[in-house]
From TrEMBL:
Coiled coil, from the record: none
Cofactors, names only: Mg(2+)
Gene: LOC112290877
Similarity comment: family membership: Belongs to the TRAFAC class TrmE-Era-EngA-EngB-Septin-like GTPase superfamily. EngB GTPase family.
Domain EngB-type G: residue ranges: 22-202
GO molecular function: GTP binding; metal ion binding
Name of this protein: EngB-type G domain-containing protein
TM regions (residue ranges): none
First-to-last residue of the parent protein present: 140 to 341 of 344
Key words, A-Z: Cell cycle, Cell division, GTP-binding, Magnesium, Metal-binding, Nucleotide-binding, Septation, Signal
Biological processes, Gene Ontology terms: cell division
Length: 202
């Protein structure tokens, strides 16, 4: 699984504005600052295809990137950004949920979860909502390079991941596929690309 080309196609503010070519697509979601844009850049070997920033709330639209001219990687706004204006927070719910429910070509949501912190209710809520709405999800744990630190409660990524998977067990008959990644070390990059390739041909 290799990415030979990645082209930014367009930004949309609702599902009806999204590209109509019918390519299969994979949408990245997660809390603001979880590392969505960094992961896109790591996947495609480009530093600035998706804009990253230390300030959360940078990505505010549905951004389509065409990969190898055949499938889309979609960057969505982060959720749970407490400082975003209320109007923007409401919008996230409106258009992101609309996009998930309407988008016929969506193969799987790639839900990014920060492995350097303990399970967050908003992420558990998101997994629950996707499950109840029968939207396929792959859980992508980010920042797995982060060593345990006092400020993270002194817990290892593996401990946070195990807790997260335990907490979503009651929500699913079968635990969704999950992958450990790091945009710093490229851990999990190949595994994620293979997983995407496999789902595309199903
Ligand atoms: P929004 O667009 O604001 O929702 O954020 P985002 O999810 O796109 O996050 P972004 O990629 O901009 O990264 C946020 C911060 O986390 C940046 O300071 C990154 O350098 C850092 N970061 C992202 N991925 C990793 C990772 O794998 N490891 C480490 N250690 N830091 C990371
Ligand atoms: Mg971003």
């Amino acid at each position: 699984a290799l990415i030979k080309s990645a082209d930014f196609i367009k930004s949309s503010s609702k599902e009806s504005e999204c590209p109509h070519e019918g390519h299969p697509e994979f949408a990245l979601v997660g809390r603001s600052n979880v590392g969505k844009s960094s992961l896109i850049n790591a996947l495609v070997h480009r530093k600035e295809l998706a804009q990253t920033s230390k300030k959360p709330g940078k990505t505010q639209l549905i951004n389509h990137y065409l990969i190898n001219k055949t499938w889309y990687l979609v960057d969505l706004p982060g959720y749970g950004y407490a400082k975003a204006p209320t109007a923007i927070r409401t919008d996230w719910n409106e258009f992101t949920k609309g996009y998930f429910l309407k988008r016929q070509t969506l193969v799987s949501v790639l839900l990014l979860v920060d492995s350097s912190i303990e399970p967050q209710q908003i992420d558990l809520d998101c997994v629950g909502w996707l499950g109840r709405n029968k939207i396929p999800v792959t859980i992508v744990f980010t920042k797995c390079d982060r060593k345990k630190k006092k400020k993270n409660g002194g817990r290892k990524p593996e401990e946070n991941i195990k807790d997260f998977l335990d907490r979503i067990k009651p929500l699913y008959a079968e635990t969704p596929p999950w992958i450990m990644t790091s945009s710093e070390t490229n851990q999990g990059k190949e595994e994620l690309l293979r997983h995407i390739a496999q789902l595309r041909i199903l």
